[in-house]
TrEMBL record:
Source taxonomy: Eukaryota, Metazoa, Chordata, Craniata, Vertebrata
Enzyme Commission designation: 2.4.1.-
Sequence ranges assigned to domain Fucosyltransferase N-terminal in this UniProt record: 59-165
Family, as annotated: Belongs to the glycosyltransferase 10 family.
Any single GO CC term annotated in Swiss-Prot or TrEMBL for this entry: Golgi cisterna membrane
Pathway where it operates: Glycolipid biosynthesis; Protein modification; protein glycosylation
Domain Fucosyltransferase C-terminal span(s) in chain numbering: 179-362
The entry's keywords: Disulfide bond, Glycoprotein, Glycosyltransferase, Golgi apparatus, Lipid metabolism, Membrane, Signal-anchor, Transferase, Transmembrane, Transmembrane helix
Complex formation: Homodimer.
Membrane topology: Single-pass type II membrane protein
Molecular functions per Gene Ontology: 4-galactosyl-N-acetylglucosaminide 3-alpha-L-fucosyltransferase activity
Cellular compartments annotated: Golgi apparatus, Golgi stack membrane; Golgi apparatus, trans-Golgi network membrane
Organism of derivation: Alosa alosa
Descriptive protein name: Fucosyltransferase
């Protein structure tokens, strides 16, 4: 009898707990609904309905040109027009300094005492871009610049933003038509300041012209012909060979002097970066290098030989089946457009941290460097 009473009691307890749990399951949603509709004075209400909000697309980064290169300005729309770059907001409005993602400083324009740099500290997120297109020979060491910049913009490959004229791959081959030639060798040169390194190329030219006729344009040589910007490419195209002579010899320092003949359908004769260095950017059989010859006389003899042998000459254009050279902007007004547009594209993608601690050790090594107007 006692056992039966105990069993009945246990069954009642189980039934009670089942009924209690069922009531809890039914009332809990009502309780949560009630709580969710009460305002909290301590933290946000996480139970209220999230409103339908459209998240705005992040704005383009701002690239501020603090110092225009030698005071030369260009239309900001040119980045889109010429290079299809529209990934940042370009401005020279200094009131936007604190909001700018990047700030460009052209080295030549930086004052020797640095008094034309921003007075306010650099925001932690901001990139200061050291912009320089000159070779180490023609770049002055200005005290106080180490540790200021965290991006570099120049022609060198071992830096952050490289600006140079590159060959592009041809997707659909087109038959190359050699332009009509009127001259054997031509050269466009305006700088003859010895301290810039120009004396090296001038000396080579004077020796070369003893053995082959060279038509010269520009201001570097007495008696040279004046050349308009609009006649630049057509003039180079009219010559079989073009003297792509740089004003100074440094690694990677390969400028528009090489790009001009590559675009125009003329064989460049290079004096500047080594042949090995040049071959890292253009095909080995697309140019002639002065270092391939013991002296200017030997070079002249080879040019005479090519002038008389069309098949040998045309081999220097075999690369055009696979690559294309892009014309560069010519006028002083547009001289600095491409590098700054390249910086615009870079700043839109760069989110890394970097500081250039030893700017001149990295760029100059053991070269003193000077600044010329």
């Amino acid at each position: 009898m006692l056992a039966m009473t105990s069993t009945t009691t246990d069954v009642k307890k189980v039934l009670f707990f089942i009924v209690f749990a069922a009531c809890g399951l039914i009332t809990m949603p009502l309780f949560l609904y009630y709580i969710g509709n009460q305002s909290s004075t301590v933290c946000p209400n996480y139970f209220t309905k999230v409103p339908n909000v459209t998240v705005a697309k992040p704005e383009k980064p701002i690239l501020l040109i603090w110092l225009w290169p030698q005071g030369v300005k260009f239309d900001f729309k040119d980045c889109k027009t010429y290079f299809n770059i529209d990934s940042c907001v370009l401005t020279d409005d200094r009131s936007l300094y604190r909001a700018a993602d990047g700030v460009v400083f052209y080295h030549k324009t930086i004052a020797w005492d640095l008094n034309n740099l921003p007075k306010d500290p650099r925001p932690a997120f901001q990139k200061w871009i050291w912009y320089n297109v000159e070779s180490p020979t023609n770049t002055a060491r200005k005290a106080g610049l180490d540790g200021l910049f965290n991006l570099t913009l120049t022609y060198r490959r071992d830096l952050d933003i490289t600006t140079r004229y590159e060959l592009s791959i041809v997707r659909s081959q087109e038959q190359f038509v050699l332009p009509q030639k009127k001259q054997i060798v031509c050269w466009i040169a305006s700088n003859n300041i010895p301290g810039t390194g120009a004396s090296t190329r001038l000396n080579y030219y004077h020796e070369l012209k003893k053995h082959i006729d060279v038509k010269v344009y520009g201001q570097a040589v007495s008696g040279a012909t004046f050349l308009r910007y609009e006649d630049y490419y057509s003039t180079i195209a009219s010559c079989k060979f073009y003297l792509a002579f740089e004003n100074s010899i440094h690694e990677d320092y390969i400028t528009e002097k090489l790009n001009g003949p590559m675009v125009s359908g003329t064989v460049p004769v290079v004096l500047g970066a080594s042949r090995e260095n040049c071959e890292q950017f253009i095909p080995a059989d697309s140019f002639i290098h002065v270092d391939d010859f013991p002296n200017p006389k030997a070079l002249a003899e080879y040019l005479h030989q090519l002038n008389q042998n069309k098949d040998m000459y045309m081999r220097y254009f075999a690369w055009r089946k696979y690559f294309r050279a892009t014309p560069h902007l010519l006028t002083t007004h547009n001289e600095f457009t491409q590098p700054i547009c390249t910086a615009c594209a870079h700043i839109a993608e760069d989110n890394t941290y970097n500081v250039v601690h030893d700017l001149f050790w990295w760029f100059h090594k053991n070269i003193a460097g000077h600044q010329w107007k």
